[in-house]
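Subject: Interface between my chains keeps coming out wrong

I've been trying for a while to get a sensible model of this assembly. When I model each chain on its own everything looks fine, but I need the whole thing in one frame so I can look at the contacts. Pasting all components below, labels as-is. Any help appreciated, I'm running out of ideas.
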Amino acid sequence: MVKNLVELRGLKVAFDGVQVLHGIDLDIARGEAIGLVGESGCGKSVTWLAALGLLPGKATVSGSVRVDGQEILAQPRHVLEGVRGKRIAMIFQDPSSSLNPVLRVGRQITEALAIHRGLHGEAAKAEALRLLDMVGIPDARRRIELFPHEFSGGQCQRVMIAMALAGEPDLLVADEPTTALDATIQAQILDLLIALRAETGMATIFISHDLGAVSQVCERACVMYAGRIVEQGTIQALFDNPRHPYTRGLFDAIPRLDGPRERLIPIPGTVPNPRDLPEGCAFSPRCSHAAIDCRTRMPALHSTDDGRLLSCHHPVGSHPPIGVTHPAEARVLEPLS
Amino acid sequence: MFRFASIRLLRALITILAVITFAFVVLRLSGDPAQVMLGPDVPQESVDAFRKAWGLDQPLWIQYLSYIRAIFTGDFGVSMRDKASAMQLVIERIPATLQLTIPALFLKVVIGIPAGVYAALHRQSAIDRGVILAAIFGFTIPSFVMGLLLVLIFSITLGLLPSGGQDTWQHGILPTLTMSIGGIGILARFSRSAMIEVMGQPYIRTASAKGMKWQDVVWKHALPNAAVPIVTIVGFMVGTLIAGAVVVESIFSWPGIGRLLVVSVSNRDLAVVQCILLLVAATMVVSNLIVDLLYGFLDPRLRAQSAH
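Reply #2:
Try treating it as a single job with all components included. I did that and got this:
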């Protein structure tokens, strides 16, 4: 048996010839929860849409995606259809528009049950009710007959999660599942994801720009910038001691809840246009630590002594950064955005 | 629901009333039936007698009131030319027109929609480009040009089909084709754009992500959503079943409503023209009503809106 559930190797994506993902390597073990963090457009979502073949036709995808050792990239449609929903399920950012507006939610869930578990009729309905109960939809027996527009955003996301659970997947990819929701609802959905993972033992990929949310759900996180992973490590290591200047910048931009009020340190500049990436390290134009070699040579992603992966010529201090005397959790209770 | 239905019915009646009022006024202001019917060299006494006989000597508003009163008693007037019941004349012509418009509507739907959907699903392919090109060709060429073009090819050059008349079923082929080509183009283009929009929606990605087969994603998730704009266009086409063949019937000497309309307008046969316009307005209104009801059936969100 292969050790890892899913292995991405050199996953690259280009849209109309413009490279947006520059080779992602990532292993996901069974039952593990990994966060993908980064600004909009850094390729977090594209990574998983590409892996599941869900990108539009103009996208060119290369590299390798293995599920239990079986290659699924560039395979015939039926191979992908067997993986989607069954091995890897995905939920999306905008739950209200991710459900089909003209189909009853019950039908949308039972469809998945029919595909993956061969359940039909009353058996499928009973299982759909159980799933809706499980994700916390009150009065499921009545509401299973309703249409998506009769649910709130948070409830739509619960329905999406119920639908994702229908195939009993080994991996749930949650693509910014709380971004479109109110803060209180965000917390409920996060709690639900944590509880479901504990209950079912499925692995979770949590895509977010919200470091706080990632720290709640995941053990490990990858920080992505401009289509590359720039730092990867345990939540503890990243939060206590971010080494990549970009990771450090993300933490500095989070307001503190404890201690005196202090000015937040934003990351200057904006994410580079994928058509026009700077030479060398893509972050170098915005980096206060950048030296000449950063602008000429792309730093490779390498392992460091403390077990993390890092792609930087001049990483920031190996000691806790100045000003952060408490563990970083205190600073990340508030969402980044 | 009752309130919704009664509002719709009232609006439908107002629409029809507006159409017949407009027709009534315009017809009477745009020419004198007595002059047209009797010719230019008739003595004034005959003209006056004709006017008196048909009530044309009365003020316009009195003519209008008696016309409306008559309509409500089921009297749609008498043709000045044939001295027969105008409605009777019109109804006799309906079957001939439907012989052309119903097959044409069928062709539009069974060719236009699948072509558009197929093109949308194979975007940027050679077939897609071909469909777009053919569609633009279809609906930009006016039907009188298209009709003459078909006659030139199939009747004159190839000698395969008759160019006019209603004697055999072969006589119906060219007029039906002429009428359907534009509609096929319009439906193909609308179906294509509706389908392209739907296929880009997040819920289609969701359906694929849950492992549905591609055909099921298209049939069960995409098409029901693309149906609303397509039904709108088809509904409009149903509304023109009665009066949509004016030009084509004239080209192919087909004895339907369209030709009756042309003849009656040039003769200023007021009652007949008014009857046809009333019928046209009624068909339009009814098909609109059906489309509205279908919207609610197709999209639960619209159902919720109309209930409030």
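Reply #3:
Confirming on my end. The CA atoms of residues 74 and 87 of chain B lie 10 Å apart.
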